Amino acid sequence: MSAAAAAATSGNVPTVEEPTFRKLLLDVLLELMSDRYTLQLVTKDSRWTSLEVGLLRKIFDQDNLAIVNEIELLSLLERWNANRDKNVSDVGYAVGAFRLNNPDPSINQASLEQLIMFCSNSGLIHGDTDNE
Fold it and tell me: Mind listing the pLDDT tens digit for each residue in 50-59?
């Protein structure tokens, strides 16, 4: 029996050390997030809240992420931080994936308002954000 097989049967699963395999695994995971059904399955799983911020940002930075709009990205972030246990800096880093790139300025305005509300509720910004 090989060392890996012995470790697997004994309950000691070896860690993935090979960088090429890790990259391949990440690429497959990111590709899966381009499918709406898969994205919903992953983000509704209770383990979504334990995802590391670096991986979360890689998922959010994808151009082919299966979200309807950027406001949905804020909802996914909210779900990720549902326990309110994330550092403000981690939430800020994840919010950096938010994009205002819709050709319709009214949609960008609504998205910006949602972003400001999210940042305020998450403790990323403080004080009066109304410019009137």
Answer: 999 999 999 9
